Amino acid sequence: MKKIMFEAFTLRSQTVEEQEENLRNTAGELEETERKFFFKRFSEEYKDPDTYAVLNFFFIGGLHHFYLKKYVRGFVNLSLSISGFVLMFTAPFQEINDYQVGAFGVGILILALVTIIEIPNLFRSQIIAKDFNNRLSRKILKETKL
User: Fold this and answer.
1) Is the pLDDT of residue 96 over 60?
2) CA-to-CA distance for 79 and 75, rounded, in angstroms?
3) Which of 3, 19, 52, 141 has the fewest CB atoms within 10 Å of its CB?
4) Residue 3 pLDDT > 60, yes or no?
5) Does some domain include residue 84?
6) Phi, psi of 97 (to 5 degrees)
7) Which residues contact 136 (CB under 8 A, 6 or more apart)?
8) What residue numbers bound the domain in which 85 lies?
9) Averaged pLDDT score across all residues of the chain
10) What percent of the chain has pLDDT over 90?
11) DSSP state of 59
12) pTM as predicted
């Protein structure tokens, strides 16, 4: 879970690229029927790195998480974002410990935290999508060899 949560920090481009090449070679060495099965399944579930990158520009909505089937993380991201917007535009200012802290400020804080957490994904979106596809390849190869 931790590895997937902070994948933008832990993934190394060279490692992911090497894994992709090795998996491509392994799939190419399969018997014809296995290879057809592999590529059919892979093409059905493949996630385009460019699409993931575009969805990442809307990181506050968490759409990129839904695209890679990370439904819980996407839902949390979306819920926090909606909560932040609702707080910003609906609740009045409140006095807390001699400071004027309005719901607007809390909403801004929530959105800022979501942004800070998601910015690394934006800059590493291509490699994150490739890693997803590598994990998908490994899964399908295991199914193929059973």
Assistant:
1) no
2) 6
3) 3
4) no
5) yes
6) 50, 50
7) 42, 45, 46, 47
8) 13-144
9) 85
10) 55
11) G
12) 0.81
Task: Decide: helix, strand or coil at residue 31.
Answer: coil
Is 5 within a domain?
no
User: Is residue 6, in this structure, part of any structural domain at all?
Assistant: no
Among 4-8, 12-16, 99-103, top mean pLDDT goes to 12-16
Using a 10 angstrom Cβ sphere, with 0-12 exposed, 13-18 middle and 19 or more buried, the burial of residue 12 is exposed
Measured between alpha carbons, how far is 101 from 33 in angstroms, rounded to an integer?
A: 64
Q: Which amino acid is at 37?
A: F
Size (the chain), residues: 146
Q: Which of 73, 68, 71 is nearest to 135 (CA)?
A: 68
Number of domains in the chain: 1
Compare 90 and 41 and report the one with higher pLDDT. Answer: 41
Q: Residue 109 is encoded by which pair of tokens? A: 């804080």
Looking at the domain assignment, is residue 40 inside a domain?
Answer: yes
User: 58 with 68: CB under 8 angstroms?
Assistant: no
Q: How far apart are CA 60 and CA 137, in angstroms?
A: 29
